[in-house]
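Worked example 3. Consider a protein that binds pyridoxal-5'-phosphate.
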Amino acid sequence: MVKVNGNYLKLQAGYLFPEIAKRVAKFSQANPHSNLIRLGIGDVTEPLPKACSFAMKKAIDEMSTPEGFHGYGPEQGYSWLREKISEFDFKKRGCDISAEEIFVSDGSKCDSSNILDIIGDGNRIAVTDPVYPVYVDSNVMAGSTGLANAQGRYDGLIYIPITAENLFIAEIPKESVDLIYLCFPNNPTGAVATKRQLSEWVNYALANKSLILFDAAYEAFIQDETLPHSIYEIDGARDCAVEFRSFSKNAGFTGTRCAYSVIPKSLKGKTQDGRDVDLWSLWNRRQSTKFNGVNYVVQRGAEAVYSHEGCMQVKGLVNFYMENACIIRNNLKEVGYEVFGGENAPYVWIKVPDRMDSWGFFDFLLEKANVVGTPGSGFGSAGEGYFRLSAFNTRDNVEMAMERISSLK
Ligand SMILES: *Cc1c(COP(=O)(O)O)cnc(C)c1O
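Given these inputs, the predicted complex is written out as C-alpha cells:
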C-alpha cells in the first residue's frame, strides 16, 4: 500500500476557524433572529477595481481572437508585468530589484509555503508567536519539526513572542537561526516595523548568514511615509531576504489570485557539503518544473494596478478599509479598551479585559454584541489575552458593530 507523508499526522487539527464556526453555529441556533456581524475575516469585501476588471475583460476578448490568443505563458510571469512591478514597487522606492528577480504566482500563501521546496534539512527555523499559521504548518508538512506540545508549539521550531511588552516587534534572537519568517505590516497584530528595526534584522541575518522570508502582503496599508514598504529599502537585504507580495489585499484579488515573490540573484545558500548555491536558480528551476504560470487574463488585471486609474482605485480601497480601522480603534479606545495596530494595517489587535482569556472575550462579544472576531490565542500561545478585529467589512457593519460594543460598557 502507498506510504503517506507522516508529517501531516503531526499537524494539529485546524482548530481556530472550525472552533469559531462551531460556536457561531451554536449561538445562531439558539438565537435565530440575531443579526451577527463578522469582523473575524481576513478577506476583502469590496469589489475589484474597475481598471482591473476592464483590463481582464479586454484580455478575455483578445484570447478569443486568432491574433490575441495566448497559450502557456512564461512560468515566471509575463515580462510586461514583471517590468512594471520592478519599476513601481521597487525602483520607485529606491530598491535595486530587477524584473528577472520577480516571480509572478497565484498567491503568497502558496509561495510562502512552496519556498520550502528549495530549503534543505537541518536548519534552525524561527517564527513569531502569534504567527500566520501557514508558515508553521508548511514546516510541519516538510518535516522540519517534531511533535506539538500542549501549548501547540512544535518541537524544533524557535518561537519569538511578540506582545505589548516588545511593541509587537520580534526581538533579535540571542542564538543563531538559519531561516526566519517576518511579516510586516503584521497579520494578526497590525504592527509594522520601522527602517531601524528592519535594519537590525538585516544586520543579524547578514552576520549569521540567515535567510529572512519577508511577507509584505499588507504593505499598501502603510500610512506613515517614513515606514519601509519593502525589506529591500534596507541596505544589505538583497543578500539575505526573499520578499512575498500579493495583489490579494490591496487590489481585492483574493478570489482572482495573483501575487509574486522576489528572489534576488545575490542570495546564496549552502549545499550539505558546504558549497554556495544561488537560490534564484533553484527557485527558477522549481517554478519551471512545478508551475505553469498565472493565466494571461489575470496578469493583465494585475498589470492594471500600475495604471493611473488602477493606482487611484487601489488607493481608494485602502483608504476605505483604513477608515474602518480608524473607526474601530477610536470607538474601542473611547470605551476603555487597549488597542494596537490598525494604523498601518487593516487589523486591530485588542488587549482583552482582565479576568477574561481570548476565547472568553470571543464568547462575550458573540453573546452580548453579536459580533464575531478572532481569538488571539488561535495564532499562537503568546496571542493569549488578545483579540483580532478586521477592518475588511462594509462601513455599515463596522459602525453597527462598534455601536453594539460601545453600548456594552
Ligand atoms: C492574506 C495574506 C497573504 C496573501 O495570500 P494570497 O495567497 O496571496 O491571497 C499573505 N500573507 C499573509 C500574512 C496574509 O494574511
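Take a moment to read the result before moving on. The chain has a mean pLDDT of 96. The domain at 6-46+309-408 is CATH 3.90.1150.10 (Aspartate Aminotransferase, domain 1).
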